TrEMBL record:
Domain of life where this protein originates: Bacteria
InterPro entries: His_Pase_superF_clade-1 (IPR013078), His_PPase_superfam (IPR029033), PGM_Phosphatase (IPR050275)
Alphabetical UniProt keywords: Coiled coil
Name of the protein described by the UniProt record: Phosphoglycerate mutase
Species for this entry: Candidatus Woesebacteria bacterium GW2011_GWA1_39_21
Amino acid sequence: MIYYIFRHGETYFSKNNLHYGEHYQDAEILPEAVPVIEKLAEYLKNKISEDNYTSPFKRAVQTVEIVERITGKKFIYNERIKEEGLSRAEESLEQLEKRLSDFIKDVESKNAKSVAVCSHGWPIAALLGLLNKGYITKMDLAKYPECGQLITVENKTIKTLDFNQGG
């Protein structure tokens, strides 16, 4: 299976390396994020993804609305790929790992050849750890992509495409 994984468009918080705090669910993407998302979407337009998932948080929804408009792909909200609760003491590392392991099991049980996923920094880092080695550590969570990057995972091989500089 091929995974196309990307982080939501840039927000005020991600641009300035700030914690989302009380805005973790309703932060919006910045206007300058739109052209970057459009370039990423143009790339995805030519890739087959049988199933497409997004976090239900506003910045991810805004991102996939742009991707849907350009690609014609439809994304399904999935609570398991929403922002992590570690920084708000809402879940442990083990709970995050279980939540995302369950997501992967469900996705792979559908036997799709490829999927697209729009999520957030730590959940993406956790997904990459799980897809690459089958578990995650706290150190893995520091390895998340920037907004505007697309990560492909196929047979435990991880590649990054950066659409911030022209793709």
